[in-house]
Amino acid sequence: MEASIAIQILPKVESTEETIRIVDEVIAYIASTGLHYQVGAFETSVEGDFDTLMTIVKECQLIAINAGAPGVSSYVKIAYRPEGGVLGIEEKTKKHQH
């Protein structure tokens, strides 16, 4: 694996219910990619190749807008090693799962 991202989508909407609905649509899209991912309380982590992950980052913005958000802010963390060897989700979190 050459890359992983953590993405937090913050739709600019009025209600908590709308925020949750839109974020759920974004997460459903991420799930549909078939890549390994993990949803956290603040962000979703995804593993894969760099180009695919950058497309996912872009699409997450568009999905939020198409779901009804007039605007969206996102926070993205990217780990990238072209030769591979990026630590995976399991490696980072397994010992902390209960």
From TrEMBL:
GO terms for cellular component: cytosol. It holds the Pfam family Thiamine_BP. Belongs to the UPF0045 family. InterPro entries: MTH1187/YkoF-like (IPR029756), Thiamine_BP (IPR002767), UPF0045_domain (IPR051614). This is Thiamine-binding protein domain-containing protein. It comes from the Bacteria. SUPFAM superfamilies: MTH1187/YkoF-like. Residues 6-96 form the Thiamine-binding protein domain. Coiled coil: none annotated. It comes from Enterococcus alcedinis.
